[in-house]
Write a sequence for this structure.
């Protein structure tokens, strides 16, 4: 089935801008963690919770949405707009937080709100694309990747403290809500709505293709957010081995490392549509897993080597992310797509909390040099699962071809 609707690129651009602006809330507090740590006297582990608690809020939000089938019974445009506006308000409220516990509660609510921004956008763009769905979802995920990196770019400006970073990201989320609420409409491949059902989550979980796609996604997520969260600390520690300390350099490189993933997502979508989603996932997981293992060697090398490795890693670590979502849209009935995507992301973000807490604890016991090697376990598991999914899909394709052959 080819994609021919003339408006598809306009709505892809709209959703990409909406995701870029809306998802800038994710690392807004993380980017200014040094300032907040100094203000509240936080340890490295406590500072890590400024991001980890967002993951927890996102998990609770996606679990709630999956349980009540919100992504399938509520218009995605409305869900996105309300969630982005809520996220903007609670994110900006961190500036008025009287202390660390209150800030954690607000960051939790930020993650909860973003559960209505991320999965619905993938469903919305899928209504406009079929043959090029991998590219389309890849573009949206690429845009949100750049959006997540923008707080680091803002923080790189001289004297940019917590206030401009948090307020700019909140303003962006408000603009995203207005854009999607005012101008978005579903495309020709809209998914069939269905009434609420308690059993829809169970029905999705029984589909083996969904389980294997989600299993590979979990391996990918084990690595992704721990890498994004702690790459600034890794860069700062590596830079310090050369006798240099520069918050601006670290913020710029951290921004580039995360933002280059936007290009990785678009490349991944093109590659997947042409040569297969499973192949793209395998290539990306091998590349990012290799970077995990090489990071310890690069740590003490000249800093340009660390930058080069970080950029390659940032490109491949997210290049396959959209394809897990695309695989889900292809593996479940149309009326369950929203719930299936939401359930997948909920499980993935729940898992991210484990390595995000393990890494700083391991670094405190030794150093940042070798801790990223722990993350290689994720790509290893992801490769096993995606190979099994590829085998299952090949067998299913062969069976369909056999059944389609005329009998003599």
């Amino acid at each position: 089935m080819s994609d021919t609707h003339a408006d598809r690129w306009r709505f892809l651009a709209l959703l990409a801008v909406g995701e870029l602006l809306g998802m800038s809330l994710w690392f807004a507090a993380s980017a200014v963690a040094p300032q907040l740590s100094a203000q509240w006297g936080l340890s490295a582990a406590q500072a890590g919770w400024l991001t980890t608690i967002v993951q927890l809020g996102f998990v609770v939000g996606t679990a709630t949405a999956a349980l009540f089938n919100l992504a399938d019974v509520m218009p995605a445009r409305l869900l996105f707009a309300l969630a982005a506006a809520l996220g903007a308000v609670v994110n900006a409220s961190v500036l008025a937080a009287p202390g660390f516990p209150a800030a954690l509660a607000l960051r939790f609510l930020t993650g909860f709100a973003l559960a209505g921004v991320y999965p619905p956008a993938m469903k919305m763009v899928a209504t406009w694309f079929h043959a090029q769905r991998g590219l389309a979802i890849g573009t949206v995920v690429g845009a949100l990747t750049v959006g997540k990196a923008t707080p680091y770019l803002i923080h790189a400006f001289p004297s940019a403290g917590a206030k401009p970073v948090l307020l700019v990201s909140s303003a962006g989320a408000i603009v995203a809500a207005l854009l999607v609420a005012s101008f978005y409409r579903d495309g020709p491949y809209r998914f069939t709505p269905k009434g609420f059902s308690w059993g829809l989550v169970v029905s999705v979980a029984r589909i083996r293709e969904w389980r294997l796609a989600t299993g590979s996604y979990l391996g990918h997520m084990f690595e992704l957010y721990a890498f994004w969260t702690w790459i600034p600390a890794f860069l700062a520690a590596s830079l310090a081995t050369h006798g240099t300390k520069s918050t601006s350099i670290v913020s710029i490189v951290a921004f580039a490392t995360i933002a280059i993933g936007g290009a990785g997502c678009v490349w991944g979508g093109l590659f997947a549509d042409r040569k297969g989603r499973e192949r793209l996932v395998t290539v990306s997981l091998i590349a990012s897993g290799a970077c995990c293992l090489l990071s310890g060697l690069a740590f003490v090398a000249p800093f340009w080597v660390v930058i080069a490795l970080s950029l390659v890693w940032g490109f491949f670590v997210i290049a396959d992310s959209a394809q897990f979502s695309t695989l889900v849209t292809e593996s479940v009935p149309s009326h369950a797509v929203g719930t299936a995507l939401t359930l997948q992301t909920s499980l993935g973000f729940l898992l991210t909390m484990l390595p995000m807490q393990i890494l700083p604890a391991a670094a405190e016991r030794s150093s940042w040099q070798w801790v990223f090697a722990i993350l290689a376990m994720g790509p290893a598991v992801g490769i096993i699962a995606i190979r099994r999914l590829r085998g299952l899909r090949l067998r299913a394709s062969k069976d369909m071809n056999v059944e389609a052959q005329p009998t003599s």
About this structure: The chain has a mean pLDDT of 88.
